[in-house]
Design a protein that fits this description.
0% strand
Length: 63
């Protein structure tokens, strides 16, 4: 099992990448971007949020 800080670091990195993409496209939300559906950056962000919340476990979240 990975250390919790690894999940947080991965989440921080994906947030940074997502925000850079939004700035580049001059949008404040992925929902207004024409490439929202199927976007690899957004998919990685969502996955890293889930992994950060679940700490790599399947099922519930560790709040």
């Amino acid at each position: 099992m990975q250390d919790n800080s690894e999940y947080e670091a991965r989440l921080d990195e994906t947030i940074k990448i997502l925000q850079e993409c939004q700035e580049e496209k001059n949008v404040t939300s992925c929902y207004v971007c024409e490439k929202c559906i199927g976007c690899e950056i957004r998919t990685k962000y969502i996955r890293s949020v889930y992994e950060s919340m679940s700490k790599g476990e399947t099922g519930g979240f560790d709040f």
